[in-house]
Amino acid sequence: MNFVECHDEPIHIPGHIQSFGYLIGVCTVTETVNFCSANIVDIFSLDSTEQLVGRKLSDFPQIHEVLSKSQIFNSLGDYTKRENETYFDKIVINQKKYHFSLFRNGQNVFLEFEQAIENPYKKISNKYDNFYVIDNDQGIWDQLLNTVSNIINYDRMMVYKFMDDGSGKVISEINNGVLESYMGLHYPEHDIPKQARELYLKKRKRIFSDVYSEPVPIVSKIDAIDLVYVSARAMSPIHGQYVKNSGAASSFSISIIIDDKLWGLVTCQNKNQRHIDLEDRVQAGIFTVLASNAYSSFRSKKDLEYRLDLAGKLSVLKSEFLKYNTLFESLASNKIELKNLPKADGFAIVSDADKVTEGIVPPYETIQKIIDWAYDNTDENIFISNSFLKDYKVELGLDFRSAGVIIYFVERSKNEILIWFRKEFDEHINWAGNPEKTIDVSSQNGIDCKIVSPRSSFQIFTENIVGESKRWSSRSEIAVKSIRDLILETSHKQYVTIKKLNDQLKKVNEELDSFSYTISHDLGTPLTVMKLNAQMLLKSFVNGEEKDRKKIQSIITEIDSMAEMMHNVLQLSRAKHSDILLEKIDTEGTIEKITENAKITYGSPRSKIIIKQCPEVMADRTMLHQVFLNIINNAVKYSSDKEEPVIEIEGSEDGDAIIYRIKDNGIGIPEKEKHKMFKIFNRMDNARKFKGNGVGLSIVHRIMNRLGGNVDYESNNEGTCFILTFQKPKFAEI
After folding, report:
1. pLDDT of the residue at 517
2. Antiparallel, parallel or unpaired: β 447-453 and 2-4
């Protein structure tokens, strides 16, 4: 059994016309009649259509004489030079006025007739130019229906807008109460299938005068006559039943064309059969064109205003970007503005191991999963989705914070990515009836076929939308592409600046390395002498004033701080240049020794340190000690003022890696500090009361990179967990 989709129905070659029309098709080569409608005999007093088909019109005086009074017929060659362009005239046949129109399609000239009907109810105002003074799009479409209703006056008149996915929505309506209102209702894509939308682009006014009348067959000596441009073309049976199911007996539609695309339709329906005169249909079409042009002008004006405003914001951003030497710093320092440009709820900047976020965003682990997915599943530099949660919730472990995303790869090879997030939008759609397709069995030419049946009910059907965000508009995409262009422009300038700075920095680093290797010897001795003298001076003030003793003690404290800083700078340099010897190391003894010393060093005997599993790692023994020393010391130090300080240390296997998690319940790390936590001499605002110089984490970061591992952390106001990733020891094969 065959299956016939709505998209497959050959609606342009129905083989029939509607009963209000009359049709003759003349071959441009032989000038003989190729086809005609069976009812042509009713207006030209012919015995049968068979005597007309295959002969010239000049053989029939009663036809030729009437047509000869029309200018467009007498100048047939001039009027048919351009294909599918229709020309109109009025003629009298048997003392009745008829509209006469002609056009050429391929090798046939179509002559079409329909009786003229006076419209005593037509009221045309001179306010057609009002479209251009209305300052909102809704007002334009409301005004269009008010104007067209003075010509058509059907029971239900609507403006139907096509959505990006082919579905539609009624955005304006005039209704006299005879038929139910469809205002605000949505229609699925298959209600107006693809080939029907294509025909609406070609033939922009369609009348279905009486859905209950029998169509008139075409008598022809050729097959498959294309009736696309014929006003009286018969409607498809599926469409006819669709109109009947809506409660109407007559329908009329006008295409709304914006930028050469089918934007929507003016759709008019009447409960009873009713024909609209050709002149009235043409006039309604003219008003629709005026409204379409007014809307296009209004939209262009708003787009221009938006682009000017965007250009102003980008100009400010550009000047801000150029204040910094690196792209990451430029982005991180302007993250709020970057989040707001595409109207996102959250924003993330990723550059290698650095991440900065703003607004409502998923956890770092989820962001990384999204990045990994994007690398594997996208080819373009910009990926946009408003149904990301719906499509990948289970696969990526997403929640409401990542229902919609825009992912922009600044540089794939460098792992530089920007991600905008939109949260889940609690929305429902009211459909005009259940949007699901209904399949029926029908017999066509003796063959049973499955066809999509038109919906029998248009009662409101509410669908709850889950897993989606508000749709990213074209303006959101424009904003992201503008940010992309700004990054490309400023990155070049930053590259030139950075190259100069790097050359200078290279020289400075060479000098700093030389300095750091000799610092302990050159400055260590003077500091030792200063400290000894200060201590001797302090002992001589046994009975001195307390004020003087405190001053001397502060000198000793500052000497110790300077010595510690010198030591740390030396360690940082060694972490960069020292030779490393990777070996399998048992970490448990090292960790236990460091934790005990840390409790003594920071005067925190109350600290509860829980050491769980400690798997072996591949590392350099000296460097490994430096890593655990700095991380564990920080954990003890920054939780020491808690009533019950707790530190947990645990290692675990994860594939080819060993991961250690060192967790404390200390002061935590503010989110805004994330991007500079491993930079030298960086100290958090909430850590000022604790002793330190901001070098320890830089040492850890540098060592872990040299060991082929990684350091990261998770933090909130209840503490911090540092995550150390080491290589798993390789065991020799037996």
Report:
1. 52
2. parallel
How far lies 610's CA from each of 373, 520, 597, 650, in Å? 36, 36, 15, 8
Distant-in-sequence, close-in-space partners of 46: CB < 8 Å, separation ≥ 6: 40, 52, 60
Mean pLDDT, residues 177-198: 90
Closest-CA residue to 705 (of 602, 636, 623): 623
Helix (H, G, I), strand (E, B) or coil at 711: strand
Give the rounded percent of residues in the chain with a pLDDT score beyond 90. 46
CB atoms within 10 A of CB 714: 15
Q: At what angle do helices 696-706 and 621-638 cross, to 10 degrees?
A: 140
Q: DSSP state, 730?
A: P
Sign of the alpha-carbon dihedral angle for 226, 36, 97, 248? negative
Which pair of structure tokens corresponds to residue 239? 């469409």
- Round to whole Å and give the CA distance between 573 and 510: 11
Using alpha carbons, select from 630, 654, 499 the residue that is nearest to residue 575: 630
The DSSP secondary structure of 572-612, one letter per residue, reads: HHHHHHS----EEE--HHHHHHHHHHHHHHTT-TT-EEEE-
Nearest 5 degrees, angle CA 140-CA 141-CA 144? 90
| Count of beta carbons in the 10 Å neighbourhood of residue 157 | 23
The per-residue b/e assignment along 634-667, b for 16 or more CB within 10 angstroms, e otherwise, is bbbbbbbebeebbbbbebeeeeeebbbbbbbbbb
Which H/E stretch holds residue 514? helix 474-522
Express each pLDDT in 483-509 by its tens digit.
Answer: 998 888 877 555 555 556 556 656 555
Residue 132 has pLDDT above 80, yes or no: no
Number of H helices, E strands in the chain: 18, 30
Residue bearing the bigger pLDDT, 580 or 1: 580
Query: Residue 513 and residue 575: Cα distance in Å, rounded?
Result: 11
Dihedral (C-alpha) 148, 150, 152, 157: value to the nearest 10 degrees?
60
Per-residue pLDDT tens for 90-119? 999 989 999 999 999 999 999 999 999 988
What integer pLDDT is reported at residue 732 of this predicted model? 42
Alpha carbon 281 to its chain's center: 39
Confidence of residue 524 (pLDDT cuts 50, 70, 90): low
Answer positive or negative: Cα dihedral of 53, 59, 63, 64. positive
In DSSP notation, 635-649 reads HHHHTTTSSS-EEEE
- Is residue 567 predicted with pLDDT exceeding 80? no
3-class state of residue 322 by DSSP: coil
- Tell me the C-alpha distance between 448 and 450, whole Å: 7
* Per-residue pLDDT tens digits for 264-313: 999 999 999 999 999 999 999 999 999 999 999 999 899 989 999 999 99
Tokens of residue 541, six digits: 């003030």
Other Cβ atoms within 10 Å of 350 Cβ, number: 22
Backbone angles phi, psi at 277, to 5 degrees: -60, 150
β pairing state of 608-611 and 646-654: parallel
Given a cut of 80, whether residue 614 has pLDDT beyond it is yes
3-state class percentages of the chain: helix first, strand second, coil last, to nearest 5: 40, 25, 35
HEC readout, 162-185: ECCCCCEEEEEEEECCCCCCCCCC
